[in-house]
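Quick one: C-alpha cells for this chain, please?
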Amino acid sequence: MKVAIAGAGMSGAYLFRMLKDRGHGDVDLYDAKKNNACGIRPCAWGFAPTSETQRLISEVADPGQFEKHHSTQISVDGVKMRSDLLILDKPSLIRELIKDEVVKEGLIDLNKYDRVIDATGVSRAYLPPIKDDLIADTVQYRIKSEEPLGLWFNTSSIGYEWCFPLGGGEYHMGFGNLRSDVKSYRPATAKGEDLVGKQIRCKCHSSVRLTTPFYSQPFVSNGKVVGVGESIGAVAPIVADGNLYAMQTAEMLAENWDDLDSYSEKVLNRYDWMRKERSALEKMMAGKMPSLSEALTMKRHSNMVGVEMNTMHVLKLFRKMARSGHESQDCPIDPS
C-alpha cells in the first residue's frame, strides 16, 4: 500500500514513525514550508499527563531526551494547583520522528496513493469542510527572562493567556481567543513590564480548532483520505490541549489500519467528553453559565491531565469566561 501523510506536525510525524517502524515502507511525508523560527506551527510545548506522554513517545523514541521541564504546580487565574505537565522540546521531537526523511512540498496527487492521511491540523486540507467549525486565533512568543515567570494560565474573554517555562531562562508565552484580537497581546514580566527587544526570541500567529471530533466528521473520505489529530478536532475545546491527542489518534489509526470504521468509532468513543466541553464553551460565548454536568466534565478532564482543579475552581473559571463572553458580544476585550 502506497501511503502519503499530509502534515509533518505532531500527529503526522508520529504516525509516520509508527508506520515505518511497523514495516510500512512505502510512505511519503508532505508538509507546507514553515517560515517561523522553530519550523513548526503552532509551537505548543505542553504534554500531559506524564505517564501517557512517556508511553506514547517511548514507542518510537526515548522520551527523556526531549524533556525540558516537569511541573508539579501550576497557577490558574492566580490559584496554585498541583499539576503533572511535561514541557517537551517539540521541534526536536518532531525532527527525531522524521529522522532523515525527505519531506515533500506541494499538493498531493490523490490518484498516486492508496491512502492519504490528513494531518494538516486546522487546514484540514484533504477532508470535507466542517459545518460550524470553531477556530480560535493565537499569538505565541518565545522569550528570555532573567526573572522567574512561572507556569500559569489566566482566562481572558473567551480564551486565555499562558506561560510555559522552557528551561535556561526561556519561556513560551501567548494568548488564544475566539473573539478578541490576539494581535494586540504583548507578553509581560511578572511585574507587568513589557518584554521587548532582545528578550523576544521569536513570535508567530496560528489558529487552533476547538470543534471536537463529534462535529468534525467525517474522519474518512472516499475510502482513501483519513484524518488524525487536529484535522479531526482532537483538541480539548476549553483548555485547547492537543499534543497528546495527536499521538493517540495516530496510534489508534495504526492499530486499526485495516478497519477504518472501527478507527472512527474508537475516536468518537474516546473523546466523547469533548462534546460536553464544546457545549460549555458555546454557552460561555453566549454569556451563559454551563451546567453542573459540564463543569464536572471539565473537572474530570483537568484531573485526567494532572491538574487538580476542583468543582469550585471550574465554576469560577466558567463564571469569569461567561461574563467576558457576554461583554465581548458588544465590545471585544483587549487582553493587553
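The chain has two domains: 3-275, 276-328.
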